[in-house]
Amino acid sequence: MTGDRRSRIHLSRLYSFSLVRSIFRDEHSQIGQKGYSRVVYCNDPDNPKQLQLKCSSNYVSTTKYTVLNFVPKSLFEQFRRVANIYFLLVGFASFSPLAPYSATSTLAPLLVMIAATMTKEAVEDWRRKKKDIEANNRKVEVFGRNHNFQETRWKNLRVGDLVKVYKDEYFPADLFLISSSYDDGICYVETTNLDGETNLKVKHALNATAALHDDHSFLQFKAMIKCEDPNEDLYSFIGTLFYEGQQHPLSQQQILLRDSKLRNTDCVYGVVVFTGHETKVMQNATEPPSKRSMIERKMDKVIYILFGILILISFIGSVFFGIETKNDIRDGESKRWYLRPDNPNLLYDPKRATLTAFFNFLTALMLYGYLLPISLYVSIEMVKVLQSIFINQDPDMYYEETDRPTHAQTSNLNEELGQVDTILSDKTGTLTCNSMEFVKCSIAGISYGRVMTEVERALAKRKGNVLPEGGYTSPDEYMDSGKSCKGFNFNDERVMNGKWVHESHAYVIQKFFRVLALCHTAIPDINQETGEISYEAESPDEAAFVIAARELGFQFYERMQTTISLHELDYQSGQIMDRSYKLLHVLEFSSVRKRMSVIIKNAENQLLLLCKGADSVMFERLANDGRVFEAATRDHIKHYGEAGLRTLVVAYRELSEEEFKSWEDEFLKTQTLVTADRDVLMDAASDKIERDLILLGATAVEDKLQKGVPECIEKLAYAGIRIWVITGDKMDTSINIGYACSLLREDMKQIVITLDSPEINDLEKQGDKEAIAKASGASITKQIREGKSQLNSAKESSVSFGLIIDGKSLSFALDKNLEQSFLELAINCASVICCRSTPKQKALVTRLVKMGTGKTTLAIGDGANDVGMLQEADIGVGISGVEGMQAVMSADFAIAQFRFLERLLLVHGHWCYRRISMMICYFFYKNIAFGFTLLWFEAYASFSGQPTYNDWYMSLYNVFFTSLPVIALGVFDQDVSARLCLQYPLLYQEGVHDICFSWIHILGWMLNGVISSMIIFFVTTNSVLHQAFRRDGHVVDFEVLGVMMYTCVVWTVNCQMALSIDYFTWIHHFFIWGSIAFWYGFLLVFGAVSPIISTTAYQVLVEACAPGPFYWMATLLVVVSTLLPYFSYRAFQIEFRPTYHDIIQRRGSDGSETRKKTDPAKDNFGEQETLLAK
User: Is the pLDDT reported for residue 401 higher than 60?
Assistant: First the structure.
């Protein structure tokens, strides 16, 4: 809007912009009591009384750590893991004589892992710190001691400071609005960062301060505010302003919250009320719910199993050692004289064998600790972060129109994306664009609008009707014709281009579009260069109505002090006329009222109430003589609903001066109240005048499906994922949207659960709530039972079912006595649609599915009303759409379009699931393969606790020699290409059934580890026991045997990785063969170190192993022998009993993916399911 027009706009007499004279009432008696003790000395922050209150500074910190607590707090986080506590205890115990190896070699790998994790935490926290620094150092103008405004940093603000904020700047703290650049003290605020809503909110100053317009007017300004203490409620504020000897009640309308932005207003003046962490946005800054994936939870169980194995073999070994020790002295003779039983010590005392066995047990616990993968947790965290980066950078999930890529806001749930069993989706803004277009209307019982919507076409196709060739236009055709504009997709020659003046009910049409042009809170914005008018509206629906009125001859172009001006097409003269209407009151829309009204006075001094709202509340408010078109309008609304359109009823009434004055007195008294039930009283006051309406017609707007939604839902359904839509729309609309987006199909039978029956309706008219509840519960119970019987009777057939239930029925179905039956019915249906659902019901349904099935649930939505559902689900996906960022901020993943969900789950979800599963299984495999070689050696050494390997061999095993290849596997491996993942969606069921991380799979890998350890130990030892190792006739000694076995372990586990990888990159090759080469390099370097440090590794490679051909031949023999069982098993399985996954892999390797693109629906999914089950 232009600057000179701002100075003329005064919206003070409107309900929504009210600046009525402040009235202090008894309701403010709570000020000064507990919870209402904040005192603010305006423009006097240095007041001694203000300083005594010790309010919070405006410095904000969102970091997890500080410089002082980083080390202790981070260490606490690390040692919450059982495995890390175990390794820490082992590290401490290594300083005792019980340790089988040195303390340095024990603590080094633990310190490396802890340091790596702490470094990651520090980097992430530093990023948060940088954002805090940026926010705390933003500039704002504050009124200083020299009586002018000077720039200062946000962090320096204090309670009581007077600040000046300019257009498009964020508010630095919670401010009391004194005045604005508008004469009447209003300003426009964008609260996207607070509640996710993009529509502008109107705030207004008190009359007492609104006149303070310029900097000089604040020279003598002093006031005091007493108000509520800091709290998290964004939508209420209770306070009192003491100014010039008068008291003025304050409400939320006078409060500007931190992190909201000033829009469409040149500047505002305000006083700081809450600072820093006392501001409402920071009071709401709670940690999101902690979510852990199913694989991570199962991994903990496997760790406990390994702990159990560790304790078991330690106990068995100590028992054998105790028995052997006790038997060392018999009849006074020493059996093993070389152990010097006559000179006992702590670790060996035949006379106290039980105590010796106990100490041996402690030693064994430390020795076999390598069964537990010390680097597992940090490796998984590293891999998940890298996986998230690849998800974020996927160009196929980037939405160019809004410049928004997909964003993984947490890396904890990557693999969970590959295990989703049920998707629970919002409709508006999620499946649809939430960009409303005016397409049809019913006026005076006549339906107008030739555009055929997507849902109508799908409906006609479903019914087998022939689409009319003429007279009806598709949305795309109409848009291509150049007649359409954003928000308006209407085409009807009877009313377009002013032809409506020739209709028989032209006067009704005039009133209808006049209501659309006047009944709103939109603000016109004229482009000074082009003269075009755009509108700032509170919702896409409202903008569509104002645009429709403009296109059909009723252009809203100016909102002044208390008037709205239109360019109107007069049906009598056929001329465009300028008309102004005096705007007296706006009765705003709310989810409870489901309607909106304005009271105006026209040039003929007629008082008119114009109203639009939902049919469920509008028809009951019609006057007896205002129902002329009711039957036809109801019929049209029904058809519009079937076409997937959102409808509103339009009506009006004339008011007498006496009725209006009487009502206005009561209304003004009610709106000045500041009580908990103020909204209820306001609704009651509004309800008294919104009666005896005269029906004009109904509007129908279309919220189009997003591009690719039907194809995406169809693909997800073929992947075996159940899809539920939970929406607030009417049942007819929801069903037809379901057909349009392929959620419901022609071959499906519908099970409809509703309380819309004559019996229930009769009881509702009688008003007996107890009888209604009893009858409703019985009805729902019966319908659920009948639905289950339908499913049972169709078990042997291939018929699928779709369940549709409305909000009233859902409230009974979610009762504890019925929820299990309802869930059993729902999960056996291919699709479920919950209509007329509240935000709370969305969350409750999500919880029921998650807890009842025990499988992974994913919720997807785009609005603030979806937050509960997103946080309740195992995975929350937010769509960054029209309704703001509230859902995105509360979600685990953010996407710009619903269709990206297909690639996020079927491609990235599948890959991440297989990668993490393989990675964890491989970790267990390599540690068991290594750890059990220690066990077999101990069996030959009487379980004495003598380690096979050098201390540093064991310490670096999990850190350098085997950890990098598994990280490469977790980040880069692709079992099948992205194209094959999408071409064969049933492949996704691998994750849903948890095939790759099932107990059979885990135990199979653990068994492979045991077998590998046995082959390595027994083949190695048996090949060297009975022959010379070197040319000089020396046999293998203890040091050489350890190096040979360790070399075989390193080669085997890395080559096993090479066999398991499906998609090789140069990184895989570098890490696998580089790890093996690093082992030899380590032997060379470490072997050259003084024998005091290197001990058994001193020159062992150069002088003992490398010169002997037997060392290299034995390594080759052992590695091939160890890998042969797994290789044979996989070869046999792929050739004779291939899994569905193996078949798809073979098709990919044979180039079959380039064959003709068949519809997955036409592929043999029955055969695929059978193969998958195998």
Answer: yes
The per-residue pLDDT for 483 is: 47
pLDDT for 537-576, tens place per residue?
A: 777 788 899 999 999 989 998 876 578 999 998 877 778 8
1057: phi then psi, degrees, rounded to nearest 5: -60, -45
Is 842 assigned to a binding site?
A: yes
d(CA 224, CA 477): 63
Question: Would the pLDDT of 473 be above 70?
Answer: no
What is the reported pLDDT for 395? 92
Ligand-binding annotation for 727, yes or no, is yes
Positions of E strands within 94-172: 139-143, 149-153, 162-166
- Is 589 known as a binding-site position? yes
CB 706 within 8 A of CB 897: yes
In contact, 543 and 436? CB cutoff 8 Å: yes
What Å distances lie between residue 953 and 91, 232, 288, 933, CA to CA?
A: 16, 56, 42, 13
191 assigned binding-site residue: no
The annotation status of 865 as a binding-site residue, yes or no, is: yes
Q: Give the span between the Cα atoms of 923 and 903, in whole angstroms.
A: 28
**Residue at 112: amino acid letter:** V
Is the Cβ–Cβ distance between 820 and 852 less than 8 Å?
A: yes
Residue 707 has which token pair?
A: 């591009």
Residues 746-749: contacts with CB within 8 Å, 24+ apart?
Answer: 746/462, 747/799, 747/800, 748/799, 748/800, 748/801, 748/802, 748/830, 748/831, 749/790, 749/794, 749/799, 749/800, 749/801, 749/802
Q: Could you count the other beta carbons within 10 Å of the beta carbon of residue 359?
A: 22
Provide the residue type at 1126 as one letter.
Answer: Y
Report the chain's mean pLDDT, rounded to a whole number. 82
As a whole number of angstroms, the distance between CA 583 and CA 602 comes to 9
- pLDDT of residue 21 exceeding 60, the answer is no
Percentage of the chain modeled with pLDDT above 90: 28
The position carrying tokens 């600040």 is 163
3-state SS assignment for residue 788? helix
What single-letter amino acid sits at 92?
Answer: F
Tell whether 229 is in a known binding site: no
Catalytic residue among 328, 426, 541, 615: 426
| Residue 426 assigned ligand-binding role | yes
Q: Binding site annotation covers 1164? A: no
CA distance 462 to 467: 11
Distance between CA 666 and CA 686 in Å, rounded? 10
- Tokens matching residue 701: 């707007």
467 φ/ψ angles, rounded to the nearest 5 degrees: -70, 130
Q: What number of other Cβ atoms are within 10 A of residue 1100's Cβ? A: 21
CA-based max dimension of the chain: 132
Q: What is the mean pLDDT of residues 852-881?
A: 85
The string of DSSP codes covering 750-778 is EEEE---SHHHHHHHHHT-HHHHHHHHHH
pLDDT digits (tens, 9 = 90+) for 1093-1126: 888 888 888 888 888 888 899 999 999 999 999 9
Q: Report the C-alpha gap between 878 and 897 in whole angstroms.
A: 10
Active site residue 403: no
For residues 1122, 1126, 1131, 1132, the Cα torsion angle rounded to the nearest 10 degrees is 110
120 among annotated binding-site residues: no
Residue ranges of E strands in 907-1050: none
Q: Helix, strand or coil for residue 861? A: strand
612 annotated as ligand-binding: yes
Handedness of CA 1076, 1079, 1081, 1083 (dihedral sign): negative
Q: What is the pLDDT of residues 1142-1161, one digit of tens each?
A: 888 887 766 554 444 444 43
